[in-house]
Design a protein that fits this description.
Elements (H helix, E strand, L loop, with lengths): L6 E7 L3 H12 L6 E7 L7 H4 L8 E5 L6 H11 L4 E4 L5 E2 L3 H11 L3 E12 L3 E3 L5 H5 L9 E3 H7 L10 H11 L3 E14 L10 H12 L1 H6 L1 H33 L3 H13 L11
Parallel strand pairs: 1-2, 1-4, 2-3, 6-9
Antiparallel strand pairs: 4-8, 5-9, 6-7, 6-8
């Protein structure tokens, strides 16, 4: 009798050929080996997942291809249904996990039966480099602060919530977590950057209206939860706005210092401002907020 792995890593794949091999390599290169990898090719154009992963043949790797494109949420659900593990790790086809990710998250999850899932800090790389510590709370999620796409969860989380909602194209990850929170499920946090999220021009979150659509979806799906946490949401929005204003002030001060250091001569400064006005442009630096 073949023993089933404890962990199943689910990767939905569509038109991310330049990243898939690196993602799969990070999943198969874990220090914790009691896992399988299920790649769901969502009818991706050539080259498909099968062609891309010919050099990654492993008895721990399974590739399934959808007959038609059904979206990331439905593909994740399909992967979870096909998976054997009792612990599920969704992983997008352009992201990475460090070698110790599974070892550390599995150990924490199995040490406490009351924990439904474990997430880590996030290192965003690619077009920008940012460290991010997600906060799993109704207020943060309903404010559009997002949740980590990659989080090790018990299969029971997907059974209890019904899984990802296929009709949502924005915010489906946060919606799943909100549904779990409504059921009283708890999540634990490891303060290490074990999950690496790739920033690039074609990522969905780069769309200008992604956050507004996500928040609208979340509020529609969880209206009562939004009302119950309205005060916390408003306070958080106020704090986020103040933080943004403070960052703008610091940027303004920095620009002003740089400008003044390069235009110490009053005559040169006057000439430059005169030329800006001739072009219909405002003086630089901009006025304080």
């Amino acid at each position: 009798m073949v023993r089933k792995p404890l962990v199943s890593i689910i990767i939905p794949f569509y038109d991310q050929a330049e990243y898939l091999q690196e993602t799969v390599a990070s999943a198969l290169g874990q220090t914790y080996s009691d896992c399988e990898l299920v790649v769901i090719d969502d009818a991706s154009p050539a080259p498909d997942a099968e062609a891309l992963l010919t050099t990654y043949r492993s008895n721990r790797l399974r590739i399934e291809r959808n007959a038609r494109n059904i979206g990331a949420a439905a593909s994740r659900n399909k992967g979870i249904e096909l998976a054997s593990g009792e612990l599920i790790l969704p992983l997008d086809a352009d992201d990475l996990i460090l070698p110790e990710y599974l070892e550390k998250t599995v150990n924490l999850l199995i040490s406490d039966p009351k924990i439904a899932g474990v997430y880590t800090n996030v290192y965003q790389f690619g077009e920008c480099e940012i460290s991010w510590q997600p906060v799993i709370s109704p207020a943060h999620l309903l404010c559009g602060q997002g949740s980590p796409v990659t989080m090790l969860m018990r299969r029971d989380v997907f059974t209890a919530t019904g899984g990802y909602k296929p009709h949502l194209r924005e915010g489906e990850n946060s919606e799943l977590i909100l549904s779990a929170l409504e059921l009283g499920l708890r999540f634990a946090h490891i303060p290490e950057e074990l999950f690496h999220y790739r920033r690039h021009r074609r990522e969905q979150t780069r769309q200008s209206d992604f956050i507004s659509k996500s928040v609208a979806n979340l509020v529609r799906e969880h209206r009562q939860l939004a009302l119950d946490n309205l005060f916390e949401i408003l306070v958080l929005q106020y704090e986020l706005r103040n933080d943004l204003v403070e960052k703008q002030r610091k940027l303004h001060d920095y620009c002003q210092n740089v400008f003044e250091s390069h235009t110490a001569d009053p005559l040169l400064k006057a000439i430059r401002n005169s030329r800006l006005k001739e072009k219909g442009m405002q003086d630089f630096p901009p006025p304080p907020l």
